[in-house]
Amino acid sequence: MTVLHTFAPMAVELPPNIVVSSVESDLADNHVAAPDHVDQERLAAIVAEARSEGIPLSVVVVPGNPWHDSTLRDLATEVGKSTEGTVAVFSDDWIGTHSDSISRVRLEWAEDAGKFKGNHPEVAVRAFVDRLEEPEGMSWTVITVVLLIMTVLAIAGLYVVKARRGQAGESAATTPTGTGATN
């Protein structure tokens, strides 16, 4: 039984003094939930721009930094259960995200751009959105296909070289080297 207990999922831990139902109701009007001291209009403009670019974003700002940054991701996941699209939760220095349309790799890449902006959520949200709007780099599928084709061509080329050497060796062995005639 100890093994089963060891691998049991951990309970969701949310930032202190955050009520999910309050966050969800605050998101309803402009997809932004933030404390009163934060300029919600500027955040709402950034979120509206992201939505016009096809990123269904909702932003939550929590004051300070929680004990552990994973609580922000837990909050984003909880809010994401009732909110379609991408939820990004910002604290002073960290970001937690959840999305039903953007891969975890891409989200974390965008998170890196928005972290450690101090108590400037507008700057952090702008950096996060800008990173999400950047086109994706080379596809791993394309890279894999190109490497596979290059490998097949290299093997085929080596086969041709080996076959020609074999033919050259056979013709040298069957050609008489000396006929005994002199000039």
Please, could you describe this protein's structure?
This protein is α/β, with parallel strands linked by helices and 183 residues long. The chain has two domains: 132 residues, Diaminopimelate Epimerase, Chain A, domain 1, CATH 3.10.310.50; 31 residues. It has seven helices and four strands. It has a four-stranded mixed sheet with strand order 1-2-3-4, sandwiched between helices. It is rod-shaped, with a radius of gyration of 30 Å. It starts with a helix and ends in a 9-residue tail after the last helix. The model has no long low-confidence stretch (mean pLDDT 82).
For this entry, give a set of tags:
alpha/beta; transmembrane; DUF6676 family protein; 4 strands; Rv1476-like; Diaminopimelate Epimerase, Chain A, domain 1; single chain; membrane
Short synopsis of the structure:
With 183 residues, the protein is α/β, with parallel strands linked by helices. 54% of the residues lie in helices and 9% in strands. The chain has two domains: 2-133, Diaminopimelate Epimerase, Chain A, domain 1 (Roll), CATH 3.10.310.50; 138-168.
Number of H- or I-type helical stretches:
7
What sequence of helices (H) and strands (E) makes up the elements?
A: HHEHEHEEHHH
Structural class: alpha/beta
The rounded distance between the terminal residues' Cα atoms is 98 Å
Structure summary, number of beta strands: 4
**Main beta sheet, described?**
4 strands, mixed
CATH architecture label of the largest domain: Roll
Keywords: Membrane, Transmembrane, Transmembrane helix
Pfam families: Rv1476 (PF20381)
Organism: Nocardia rhizosphaerae
InterPro entries: Rv1476-like
